[in-house]
User: Fold this.
Amino acid sequence: MTLTWGNASAIDRERGLVAIKPSGVGYAVMSVDDIVVLSLDGEVLAGSGRPSTDTPTHLALYHAFPEIGGVVHTHSTWATGWAQAEREIPLLGTTHADLSPHAIPLTRRLTEDEVESGYEAATGAAIAEAVAATGPVELSCALVRQHGPFCWGSTVEKAVEAAITLEEVARLASIAVNLDPRAKVLDPALQKKHYARKHGPSAYYGQPS
Ligand SMILES: [Zn+2]
Assistant:
């Protein structure tokens, strides 16, 4: 992680508590006491510092997606490259299909008013819009236009895993498009197969738990 960039949060749905990275604190020096605990409405309940500036984005995602338990935001190089090029990441290969059977969407452009006031919450709303058609289970990442990726999962560990996988997917897609600008979208049968064998009711990837 570069400098203090990026942030992560987790939610306890039963108690309605969100734990999030403090703003501008380095990962190497951060301790448990620095983690800020808030209500879903953003009221700080514990922690000495200020929460991440992106907190309203995280809270908007927890409100929009009751299924999720953790959110991670990075400026990882390859995924951010696609966001800056204002391109969704097309589903070109099975590595991507293992993560999601959909293209990784790009959020819409925010209006000037949204940028002026309530910017971070509007960013969360734009992500929710981009994911509305597929839902947050089959699609665990989105690219915020000209900014970078947000990822989520049933836990914050799953969200981190999605963010790491997305970065590799973005790197592979960059290479494929560079080698062949007309690289074809993965065959629909393979899209479904790869996602289903790793996720969902009849998954058979890995060891039975
Ligand atoms: Zn950011």
Remarks:
- The mean pLDDT is 95.
- DSSP finds seven helices and seven strands in the chain.
- The pocket of zinc ion is lined by residues 73, 75, 147-148 (CB under 6 Å).
- The beta strands are 7-12, 17-20, 36-39, 44-46, 70-73, 141-144, 148-153.
